[in-house]
Amino acid sequence: MILRLFVAVILSLGLFACGDKKDDSAENQKVSTTTKKVTAKVNKAPVNGDAFIESSLGDATGLIYNITSDSASHDAALKIYNGLVEYDKDLNIVGDLAKSWDISENGLEIIFHLNENVRWHDGQPFTAADVEFTYKFMIDDKTPTSYDADFRLVKSFEVIDEYTVKVTYGEPFAPALMSWSMAILPKHLLEGKDVTKSPLLRKPVGTGPYKFQEWKAGESITLVANDDYFKGRPYIDRRVMRVIPDTATSFLEHLNGAVDIAGLTTLQWTRQTDNNPKYNDQYDKYKYLSFGYTYVGYNQLKKPFNDKRVRQALTYATPKEDMVKGILFGLGIPATGPYKPGTIWYNDKVKKYNYDIEKAKELFAEAGWTDSDGDGILDKKGKKFQFELMTNQGNTVRTKICETLQQSWAKVGVKVNIRVLEWATFINEYVNKQKFDAVVLGWNITNDPDLYDVWFSKNCGGSKLNFICYKNEELDKLLIAGRKEFDPEKRKVFYHKAQEIIAEDQPYTFLYVPYALVSVSKRFEDVYTAPAGLTHNQDKWWVKKENQKYKFEQ
Amino acid sequence: MLNYIARRLAGMVPLLIGITIICFAVIHLAPGDPAQFLSSMNPKFSESAHEKFVKLYGLDKPLHVRYIDWVKRVAVLDFGESFAPDGKTVMEKINERMPVTIYLNVAGMVLIFFIALPLGVLSAYRQNSIFDKSVTVFVFVGFAVPTFWLALMCMYYFGVVKGWLPISGLKSYNYDQLTTLGKMWDIVHHAFLPIVLSVFGGLAGLSRFARNSMLEVLGEEYVTSARARGLSETRVVFKHALKNALLPVVTILGLSIPGLIGGSVIFESIFSIPGMGQLFYQSVMARDYPVVMGVLVLGAILTLIGNLVADISYGLVDPRIRYGKK
Amino acid sequence: MGRSRLLSKVNKNILFYSGLIIVLIFVALAIFAPYISTHDPSFINFDSVFLAPSADHYFGTDDLGRDVFSRIVYGSRISLFVGFVAVGISISIGLLLGLVAGYFGGFVDLIIMRFVDIMLCFPSFFLILAVIAFLNPSIFNVMAIIGLTGWMGVTRLVRAEVLSVKTRDFIVSAKVQGIPSWLILSKHILPNVLTPIFVTATLGVAGAILTESSLSFLGLGVQPPTPSWGNILTAGKDNIMFAWWLSFFPGIAIFITVLGYNLLGEGLRDILDPKQ
Hints:
The complex is a heterotrimer.
Chain A: E1 29-31, E2 51-56, H1 71-77, E3 85-87, E4 93-95, E5 98-103, E6 109-114, H2 128-139, E7 154-161, E8 164-169, H3 176-179, H4 187-190, E9 210-216, E10 220-225, E11 238-243, H5 247-255, E12 261-263, H6 266-272, H7 277-282, E13 283-289, E14 292-298, H8 308-316, H9 320-327, E15 332-334, H10 357-366, E16 379-380, E17 383-384, E18 386-392, H11 396-410, E19 415-421, H12 423-431, E20 438-444, H13 452-455, H14 473-484, H15 488-505, E21 508-521, E22 524-525, E23 542-543
Parallel strand pairs in A: 2-11, 18-19, 18-20
Antiparallel strand pairs in A: 1-13, 3-4, 5-6, 6-8, 7-8, 9-10, 10-11, 12-21, 13-21, 14-20, 14-21, 15-21, 16-17, 22-23
Helix pairs in contact in A: 8-10, 14-15
Chain B: H1 2-29, H2 34-39, H3 49-56, H4 63-75, H5 90-125, H6 130-144, H7 147-161, H8 180-218, H9 221-228, H10 233-255, H11 257-261, H12 265-270, H13 276-285, H14 289-317
Helix pairs in contact in B: 1-14, 5-6, 5-8, 5-14, 6-8, 7-8, 8-10, 9-10, 10-14, 13-14
Chain C: H1 3-12, H2 14-31, H3 33-36, H4 68-104, H5 106-121, H6 124-134, H7 139-148, H8 152-166, H9 169-176, H10 181-217, H11 229-237, H12 244-272
Helix pairs in contact in C: 2-4, 2-12, 4-5, 4-7, 4-8, 4-10, 4-12, 5-8, 6-7, 8-10, 9-10, 10-11, 10-12, 11-12
């Protein structure tokens, strides 16, 4: 399976920033009102059958993984294709279509040895030619993919024999290996054809555990188990992804038993499930720390945010604990930096900014901001401390954060005006053009620790991701060095140091890492969380004969 | 008559051009183009990718050139391809959404006509009676309740608490395995709430229109004189008055033609109905220009035709109106 | 119509009365909001989230611990304001264009009415989205948007009225006397078209309040932290099963107000209708 490896702000309306249940991980925690599941492992042997119904807020836009960029398309396509490598449940990189690989001493070459018994859904054998085709496809200027960056770093690509390929890079690049988790496409169906007109966009052919069956536009996508899957047929016969655009409707459908898995909001988790027998009879709840964080980013090109003390003061004046308690009902952890607590990349010895109004006022005063005219708002040389806090529309949690910050910062004499903008306008007209004071947004946390895209000083301007234009030369050096080191223990040192710098400078006020809250129907067996989240072993989920809800003629 | 229609049709052309120019300008000048949309917040997007997408989407040409290209294609009824990576043409996209929307709208509209007309006529006939007053309040209740709120309340009560009705969607998963009768029941079952709620919300307009129209007719001389001639009251009301009162209502039919393909985004979101409203909303949000333009142009054409049909039918039923001069 | 006759018609009209009373109550609520509300409507208190209605919080509290009653009271300001300004905009535009088109006729009429036709061809939802893409959803823009997309009906109505008034003797004689057009328009024609406009405006306020709530549903309405009935209602939608008071009270507020304006409008229509 291809795990999503790119950093992206989740657009998903209504749900909070990083709630993508597929690729999150960590804290192995299961909350259930019953004890039945604890013994799941000793159950009798898995049997085939039944269907798994999930819901999505939006319809897929297309089913060739490599050229779509929305989460609905990716979730559906994820089950249809394989990459060369993938993450296992403990977030180790393991082989997928590749059974093994060798990385040269200097880190410039990777040789992939491919599985030999893999067939495409149409029966054709999978070979090195398909991998080569996919590589060329990704860097072709006629391919409408938005994930070409990593593949453009490849210096040369060689097919050594039918089941071996060699990739050579110009310079060592640690995230390179994982970039090969990109879906591999069938050469025999796509070569020499215009992909934008290919029937595969609607009727995909992959190597994955599920085969495409039907796509009713705006309604549902149905996949059926691939009997010929090289890692063994998944137990559940069908997967149906239903489009339910409204979050309230989606929860009602879940409650009614029509959708088997649902991401819960913190509110549903705390107040609408435990006390509801109708819910408890049907579902188990699972929670794990999600792979993402929410933050306030300050535009470093603007006064007064170019002053470190001002940023630190704002962080001191931010009641992170209270926000987690109030907005997330305690279902999150205050964040201190860009990594997830509990992973090896996370450094918990960085400077912390516990809520402290006095400290904040001191720092403001040091930076020259005092309330000299007694109107309750700080000022400096006749200029008042007021600015706009922006976020995107449709994300109620972010709006609540803005409202809370407005009130909290008012206590230290900072006047905040909230502005909520439609996504495309917000990003393209304000964020990417540095026309903002401060924004509330979220990042996904990738399994690879590379921070280059978001924090390297040159990645500012255009649509690059260091849109706050933060600059720190020392950090730049660390980020470059970290990218070239393959050994996690050595790599860790760079990133731990980087976190200290970021914590000291506070270019962001890191708010929190929320929990992913998932509810899954009790009829599925072998459901458990791992560092990689909950759905890491979905192909191995199964339903006892007597519990099976949907029956299909084979 | 034919002459009149021909002239009206010819008059539509400049209107359509005006409409398309405005649409085209508005959608293309709105902040954020589809290429930027893909690049935003995506580190795997290489520096040259934006340019690549601009080329692929044909956004590199100046606006007026793009407009002319678009008109050339539309002139041969080709609305182009959607930007979404599913390789569908705009017409395919519209075609897959249209039947659902038409089905629900026709059902809703027929019901509205059948309920609202008698309500309106009777309340006019018994003007200021308790019946009239309660009908007035009833239809306005339908109009005044925020629909999505009522919809969610009903879904919760009838769907979750009582379990009588499905919550959303158009069909069950096992639809294909049902008997013919079962299939019909399944569809009716699913469409029940959306249709009932849209009818409830839509009663006010038509019933008030019918009431006013009936009141006007009841005040006309020929009705008074018919009464004076000693014709029975039922005959007066149902034969003479009703016929004339309903004539203007007929024109409403024409005006509701464009409404047949327009879905309500909110309704469709709440009930998970894959209709035109959602297609349009999502296309606007994703800046899928070809689809947005396609839907708008289609809607505009239907509106213009609807107006024409309304005028013609009005003329047909009301001989006082003559074509040709005005 | 005699004054006494008018009064007796008013007296007999229950719809008019109930509508008027409802509207007045809500207007009073909006004006005296600071005195009526029991709490600061924007005060966030994480210790009191989702409290059910009680003596302390009449309508309970919301997800940030704010008092729903106070928010609805303050929201009435916003919602009514949106209603009045939006209708003010659409009536002004509609009236002006309608008068001009109807009175001058000819080429001006043709251009204006074709423009109306064009505007009517856009789904109003598209117009709203388009404007929102350019502007951002501040409260003034929401009012402007609802107003700018709702004037076409008024124009048609006014034009039709003007056409019928125009042929009357007193206008013709005024023209013959050489009285300037603007004077004829404002002194003689305008008063005669005001009646239907008044009814339309009343109904329009109701429509605008509903439109704002729909926009809020899509996240495009009045933006937080300003409370409007629409955004309070939308915020409560996801908790409909658990915290019913969050969506129930704003829903009822919208419902009663819209009903009030509609009844008022209908009542006015009955009263002002010369035929009866």
